[in-house]
Structures are given as C-alpha cells and as structure tokens.
Design goal:
By secondary structure, this protein is of the alpha/beta class. It has 14 helices and five strands. It has two domains: 26-189, P-loop containing nucleotide triphosphate hydrolases (Rossmann fold); 192-311, no CATH class. Helix content is 56%, strand content 9%. The chain has a five-stranded parallel β-sheet with strand order 2-3-4-1-5, with helices on both faces.
Amino acid sequence: MYKKFFGLKENPFNVNPDPRYLFLTPQTEEAFACLTYGIETRKGFILLTGEVGTGKTTLLNKLLDWLRQQRASTAFVFNPRLTVSQFFDFVMNDFGIPCESGMKSQVLLKLNEWLLERYQAGERAVLVVDEAQNLSPQMLEEIRLLTNLETSTEKLLQIVLAGQPELEKKLNQPQLRQLRQRITLRAKTLPLSQEQTRGYVQERLRIAGAEGPDIFSPEAIEAVHKYARGIPRVTNLLSEQALIAAFADHLNPIPREVVEDAARDFGLHEVDPNAQAVSQNAPADDEEARLNESLLQTLHALVNRLSLNRQPADSEEKK
C-alpha cells in the first residue's frame, strides 16, 4: 500500500521473525556469541530468556541459519505443548531419524545410535526448543535426561531452551534443580535503548529498500521508543501503523504526531505494552492478538480516510 510512496521494495516492519532483519545490538551479539560458543564447545544445556517481543525467535532463526552453514543437524520445536511421545516423534522426525517402533526405549536407542554416528563423523546435533516456559515440569525432566546421552568427555546432544522470564522462575522450582544445575550458559535478549531504536528502525527501512532522507523524523523515532518501550515487536507494529497513517495523509517524513496517534490507536499511551505479560503472566499470543486486532481496526479507518482524501482530486479530474 505505502511502499511506492516511501520508496520501499518490501514491508520493513513485518512481525514474522525474519533473520535478515536481525538488528545486532551489543546485547544481541553477546547472546548470539554465547549460543554459538556453547554449541561449538559441546556445553550441553544453554538457556536463552527475554521478555515478550524482544527478538528471541528471530535470534533463534539466525542461530539455525548459522547451524545449517556449519552443517550441523538440527531439530526445532516451536510448539512445546506436546505430550512426551509427541515431543519425541517431532524431534526424531525433524532430525530425520527413522524409527518404526513407538516405544520410548527403542526411540532413545535409535537416537543414541544416531548421535554417536554424528559424533564420530565430527558433526554436531542441536535441539532448539522455543517458548519453553510452556513446558511442563515432566517434559523438562525428559529433556534433561537427554543430556545423559554422552561420551566419557562430551555431550552428544546440544540443547537450547528459549523462553520468557517465566522459564527462569519455573527452573527455580525444587523438583527441577537437577536441570537448573546442568545449564552451563545463559543468554538474554533485552529491550532497545532510544539510540538503538533509531538504528533498528533505520536498518529495517534500509533492508526494505529505503534510500535518501530519513522516513521517520527524529521526533517520530523518539515517540516510537517512548510508546514501544524498546520492545522490537511493538516497535514493528507501531512503525507499520505510522507508515500507513502517513501514507494516507501524504506525509513524508513522518512527524511525531502520527506516531502518537498510532500509539493511541493501540492504547500504548496508557498501558506499557509489556505490563500485562509481566504483571498478569498473560501469554504472548494474547498480547499479539490484541495488538493485531487494533491494527486491523485502525487500518480500516485509515483506508476510509485515504478514500476521502482522493475524492476531491477525482472530482477535479472529472471537471
């Protein structure tokens, strides 16, 4: 809708975790270095935590790209709400390990044989579990037991657990102390500073094809950071909304007022976008659904406004 008006080749603020758009702050670089170091040195368990919308899944996709370049075997569990048998079925299938038997003992034997083959070939096998805060204590214990697949000196399977801060709280439960003690490295994703928000927005616009003067005024960037609180996912939603509104009103660069209006549309002028997740332990999906619903409602209003702006021009052409 707005790409031609702003000179873009693609939408810069899609909320899908595209690794091309990973913005490397010093904290993100440190987290990525922690993950790659842990895998290269076969540390076993690595923990990645961060608040809702701070880029964990994007970072994991970047990690998976890197692992493919290293020719490592990977299994990526993105929906941990599985039974134990479903979990093992998913992992075996993602690793590409054939197993005719559904018995857990046979599955583990097959997995151990396959991991030994990978180890002897000098290859690594990595299991990545996203949204791990949703794993039951039983499932977390099953995952811990997978680290018993080892040689006398090294772990055969490297495991990355990624999730919201609730995951750390869950791991502090007494019944999970054995798992907690096996986590050798911890990485975090953090909200962006105001200067990082500026770089984040400009970098996404650049990747999307922007050239020439800044599309967002400095004041608009300040407003984006103020209302998004440095959360990349909320920054994307707010920036996308601002682009649509500015296009409807033929504004380039985007002024602060457009961002403030977009923040009011989302209710961000009243509520911290992360407050619900922190104070009420609300699922990330609920918050994203709320923001997306608000986006659709305001998009409809903006399209109507754009149509009204075009009507006088159409009348003049007919005359």
